[in-house]
Amino acid sequence: MKNLRQCTLILLLIFIVPGISSASVKMTLPEYLKEILLNNHSLRAGAKNVEADYYSVLASVGNQRPSISASATGSWASRQSSGNQAQSNVFAGSTAIRLTQRIDISRTFSLTEKQNILGYEVSRANFNNNVNNLIAGAEQTWWSAVLARENMKLQRDILLQRAENNRVTLEKYNQELVPRLDVVRSEAQVVEAESLVKTAETLYLNLLAELSYMAGGLDVEPVEEELKVPEFDVILNYDEALEFRPDVKAAKLTLERAKIVRNLAAKGLSPTLDFAFQFTPWSDPEAFATPNSHQAGASLNLSIPISDGNQTKYRVMNTDRLIQAAESNLQALKEATRRDIAVAMNNWRNASTSEQDKKRQVERSEEELRITELMYSEGMGAQIDLINAQTAYQAVKTEYLDAIKDMYVALVDLKKAIGDYSPEEDGTWREAVTVYGKGNNILGETGLKTLRTHSKKAKEAKQAETVKDE
Known about the structure:
Elements: H1 2-16, E1 25-27, H2 29-39, H3 41-60, E2 67-80, E3 87-103, H4 109-174, H5 180-214, E4 220-222, H6 238-244, H7 246-265, E5 272-284, E6 295-303, H8 311-377, H9 383-417, H10 431-434, H11 451-469
Parallel strand pairs: 1-4
Antiparallel strand pairs: 2-3, 3-5, 5-6
């Protein structure tokens, strides 16, 4: 009965368990990253929010432009004479076209436009930061899944090995060469190995589920490739990290915007001047309509605020505190960048050293296990020695795989710390994604737009045309 159970277990391991994810799409890491950039739903939602902010900026400056409106009026009046009781009806109507424009005598238009543009750019930098975090998290999960699969294979091999050792122990027991205690110990080792296999399989399946979630629901499985020890391929530069990290860039833009908002708040009691022009193309009858047909008129309305209940004063105080908060937040992110780089480098050095040490331990443990198994099969070794050798080999092999995973994770943390997973302003990608054959640009109307650079290019083109005409 026990032999039948072992055979069934081996068949499950060989034929059934590998088919758990047979419906998954096997991908390389570059293919997987592109799948995320195209189909991750939170990423697409973020891109649409950035586009919404773009059009919000265009809408916010609409009140700075001239406004044109057309109107039509009509009226009816009844008049009755007291002498002969005669009644007369009077109909009157008119149409008018009105042009209004606020004149920027307090110089607030440019400040308002600039702070709105900076708000959009802050939104875009925050989106790039989400991209940086998402791609870094995706690659970490990818390597965790790859190493979890290797660990699952290891646990299955150990289970098959212990099942074979249990078979040998049962034969020896039937030949009265070993005591019953050896059989009990052997069976306990098989049960423990089964539990470890199940744990390893569950971890691997959970990581596949996470990969699928980040790829927009597509069932993904890393393609079978030779497991390689990663090499250090990151160029570290603290100043460049501060330039390219999107969260630092967002903090700098937020500080710049806060200063402009303060300048706007200080203009709370500034006078306003509104210009209006109206033309009446038709009115009838002339005696009752005002203004008359084909009459034009213009007006200027100057408003000088005297008191606003200290609103301007407290708004300035509010923006002063926001500036101080933005300055502190920027400094904190600079310190966090230095910390993230230092921690990731320490983790890399530790994992790299551990990988070399565990590699030598694995080689020694494999040789020890081979000799112990040979001695036990020939009746010259104790079973407890075999169990100890198997346990030691399993532990050091698992630690070796963990060290390799930690090396990959440390590299990803380094690239994330210097903003290597975020897109450039022109929509291209920095080193971390370029290494994998470049990611696809974030699809959308604002993928290659920045209002500031767009405005700058327009001015340069206009200046070039002026020079050419001269």
